[in-house]
Write a structure and sequence with these properties.
The protein is mostly beta strands. Strands 1-5-4 form a 3-stranded antiparallel sheet, with no helix packed on it. Strands 2-3 form a two-stranded antiparallel sheet. A hairpin with a 2-residue loop joins β4 and β5. The protein starts with 58 loop residues before the first strand and ends in a 5-residue tail after the last strand.
Length: 102
């Protein structure tokens, strides 16, 4: 979980970085491309992801941090938080990331 690591790089592992990503227009998904290796998550475990972009991210206000937002037979995506900068600034809760997981 991201708890206690919201504004610190401690405990996070960089799994993807691509300065060549070209952002699409607001409201249109931006493809990141393939990750070099998968991110295994054992059944029943929680894995947090810190997604950062210099162009800002699309999100919506949530209902309650920690509530399930979307799910299927393989994954549950929970409401989380947003920050004003990469490991710095203020946190805003609850937030729902406007991305697509494949």
């Amino acid at each position: 979980s991201y708890t206690s690591h919201e504004l610190s790089s401690e405990g996070w592992v960089l799994i993807y970085s691509n300065q060549a990503v070209v952002h699409k227009k607001r409201g249109q998904p931006t493809e990141l491309g393939d990750f070099s290796k998968p991110v295994p998550i054992k059944s029943g475990n929680i894995q947090s992801f810190f997604v950062h972009s210099s162009k800002s991210l699309v999100y919506t206000a949530g209902t309650q941090e920690g509530l399930p937002f979307a799910s299927d037979d393989s994954i549950v995506i929970y409401e989380g938080i947003g920050t004003t900068d990469e490991f710095d600034g203020k946190t805003y809760s609850p937030r729902v990331w406007g991305g697509i997981v494949r």
